[in-house]
Amino acid sequence: MSSAPSEESVAARVTATVERAIQRNIKGLEYFGSAAPAVGASPRDLIHARGTMLLYHYRPMADEIYRVPILVVMATTNRGYILDLAPGQSFVEFLLKRGYDVYMLDWAPPTAAEKTLDLNSYVNDFIPDCLAKVQADSGIEDVTLMGYCMGGVLSTLYQGSHADSPVVNLVTFTTPVDMTKMGLFSAWADKRWFDVDRLVDSLGNVPAEILYTSFDMLRPASRFAGNIRLWDNMWSDEFVKGYRMLDRWGADMLPLAGEYFRDTTKKLMWDNALVEDRLEVGGRPVRLGNITVPFLHVVAEHDHIVTTEASAPLVKLVGSTDKEEVILKGGHVSLVAGANAQKRLWPRLDQWLQERSV
Fold first, then answer.
1. Catalytic residue among 149, 268, 286, 345
2. What is the pTM of this model?
């Protein structure tokens, strides 16, 4: 039988518990009176902008740089600073310090005049325009294209429809392809009761509030549970800082251009045309089998937004001989940001890129 705890150990536990309770209350008062922590600290330059489209170049942090630059395509519903949260917690900073030349296609809220932007605008205009600017700015013809979530979908659509693409490597994170397997999203977008035409015709652009509510409803209790975890860990400055950065990003959603939302709903969600190999964007056939460059597809094992079933067919349908699917522990966000990403995704991606970026 184990011996009973000593009086000293009990006293130490009580003291620690009391101290945390005091710190929790003090920090709780500070929490509501302090500004949110800064994000997106890696130095960068805006080298090209057209309305909702923003192209940034991050300043190098290494003496020697790999030859092939990287263009990261961010998801259209969220801002790119999730990949550059803070020094020591930044995916972009990691790539820069490892010697990669990093560009990012990020998004600003579309204006009312941009409601006519459609899927063709993103796939056949914005992406090739930014690729050309990366080529001109870097002086290198070859580019690695890397897409997160819907940015991965757009990157895949582009590469599957442009035989003359300068892309020599394609990387996608948490990228869906079979939209019938998108769980609650598939149910909410069911055309039997979701009138996308009325929504877009009435509002023009789709407000961020609608999108935020949709994501929030995927896990109705998560915000409440998150607040409990925050209070339990209010004594820890490091936990609170990380929580506030991620919470800020999660709430900082972007509206979507109306025609783009209509296109993605009808062509991708309702028709599921991509996985069934009959999608056309701007008159261009999109064929996953036409993608022949080295391809890395990263899946989050516990992704509640893009299910593993929704992303599973992608690597099989891509025509590349050099292709790989990597399934890592983590969720939709923790795959790319946070301690989990630093241990799993970042070094794994660096290993894959090294031999394909020279």
1. 149
2. 0.81
